[in-house]
């Protein structure tokens, strides 16, 4: 193959440094974000905002992410991830400053849209960077490192926010913005804008794959998983703190539940990444989705906070396995051409759209009956787990299976390039999918 005509993404020549920078920046951004998230519903309720209004403000964050994520994925794949990462962090910090100066629920919602747009662009760019630069055989552990940064933020952010938020919630907003500014420093200083073409270890580029070819069975199943996760996340965003308050939890204890949820994830993060690199990712995702359906349905029926926390630890262990497995499978299934960025964008956009919907409606559902939003989200997880085996029957579950499929396709079609073989496989899989044009 000849030399590429366009620069390779930042950091591809040194994936170890790239991963360290992304994990550090992710930790700081999520620490600031989760200093706000658990307390914001209570803060709004203290200002006499209705449960439905709380849902609107919480959903506004995910609406912002919905507007930015697909565009961010394409931009990160086409122009490099450094600029997208910095733009996302800047937008999030500006939203925090706006919340500090907010004069009412309308401005609260607008600033949450800005925060969400920034956070969504940042997350998609970080995941696209990993998918495009890390070898397939170690992507599970690489994605697990990014999610470890997220969960460390989930663990520490609510504790810090809980202590400050008891007295001065406006200081929490400023602190969250400052964390985003700090997160931009390693990205700005340690990631070059471009590197020399040909330094990346990735396979030679294949022709761009149309979106209709990207939406084959493997990706469609992952979009179903993304939608399920989004529904559950939206319910948690709006209803978790309200549910804990129903059972008598203090503000500090509510923050502690987020921390205790994160700890099992951190314990299982490395072995979960190893499992995603070695085991059948389809089975890992299906099994953890079933576990999720049980745990989510159980929370509103339990009135013991220690029991709720114990069950959430089981859920966290399952998610520690599910997240890197899903991202590794997504990188595999959208690897042809410029599909990596678009695959990440589609996954994140689907997840966020479901989160927006769930956050909007779950406040009203909770007001009618606290069990409703949790039970409905759990049912969605159960349906997803039932549908996945039929969608993924022909999908390669491991790296070895994917490589064998690519070699087989290349041999039958006379293609020498692995990327071209993947593109051809994508087209054949899509052609066999009912309803595709």
As a percent range, the share of helical residues equals over 70%
Beta fraction:
under 5%
Poorly predicted residue ranges: 1-13, 195-208, 416-437
Number of helices: 16
Question: What gross morphology would you assign?
Answer: globular
Structure summary, number of beta strands: 0
Radius of gyration of CA atoms, rounded to a whole number? 21 Å
- Sketch the topology as an H/E string, one letter per element: HHHHHHHHHHHHHHHH
Structural class computed from helices and strand pairing: mainly alpha
Distance between the termini: 32 Å
What would the average pLDDT be, to the nearest integer?
Answer: 81
- For the report, how would you describe the main beta sheet? none
If you had to describe this structure to a student in words, what would you say it looks like?
This protein is mainly alpha-helical. It is built from 16 helices and no strands. α9 runs antiparallel to α14 (372-391) and α10 (251-278) packs parallel to α12. The longest helix is centred in the middle third of the chain and has 30 residues, at 217-246.
SSE map:
Blueprint: H1 15-36, H2 40-46, H3 51-79, H4 81-100, H5 105-133, H6 139-165, H7 169-190, H8 211-214, H9 217-246, H10 251-278, H11 281-298, H12 305-333, H13 339-368, H14 372-391, H15 399-413, H16 418-431
Describe this structure in a few short sentences.
The chain has 437 residues and is mainly alpha-helical. The chain is built from 16 helices and no strands. 79% of the residues lie in helices and 0% in strands.
